[in-house]
Fold this sequence. Notes:
Structural class: alpha/beta
Largest sheet: 6 strands, parallel
Number of helices: 13
Number of domains: 2
Strand content: 15-25%
Distance between the termini: 21 Å
CATH architecture of the largest domain: 3-Layer(aba) Sandwich
Oligomer: single chain
Amino acid sequence: MSPIGIFDSGYGGLTILRTIRQLMPQYDYLYLGDNARAPYGTRSFEVVYEFTLQAVRRLFQEGCPLVILGCNTASAKALRTIQQNDLPQIDASRRVLGVIRPTAECIGEITKTRHVGIFATPGTIRSHTYDLEIAKLHPDIKVTGVACPMWVPLVENNEAHMPGADYFVRKSINEMFALDPLIDSIILGCTHYPLLLDKIKHYVPAGVEIIPQGDYVASSLQDYLQRHPEMHARITQGASLRFLTTEQPAQFNDSATIFLNHQVQAERVVL
């Protein structure tokens, strides 16, 4: 079997997996969560790179010809180094793709004011990866990033729909619009944040577009496979789904249900 591999430090990548499978259910998929070492958002560039490379190697060992880093922190801090330095030595025929580029590509068609906000983890904001990617593609767009360190814990502790989450969501939104009141589009630059979407929409000013990444990553992957028939031919199409975690499987299974709305059975691995 040669599945599409999807990696995340935690559970947020499950939102990417869900939207990719909705668009392309025919492929085999293998999800790997490094849940025992999550979150990555506050870790150094070197550590995120080291952990992400370990995960990519494991997914390659499991037969994945293509791996999606369904994690903004890993995409920001590790993707380029893995693509440029490691892939040529490991296996030049395999591919590792991230979630930031597809989102940056779409934003030019969405914003009218050319003022865009990013909500993300501290690590992603510090990396300035979104700013750089958007500047390359759309140099006229002004980007304002706000770090939301409390949002991931709220989601992972199943507090996203509780009243306590409102305080932190409102606080970050107020901070963003104090920095730039002309923002008309906000990228959710962390794969956990779609679970806070209802609250975010409630507190942003009317007319502001909220952009979860899943749909754009899924359509970008579909386009990639159409443009690369050699990769499409390598991926098996048995519509299967398998989960690996570095955490205790029972804990992963419970938390994954929050993101997928159905029961899963994970296997434990050591990276």
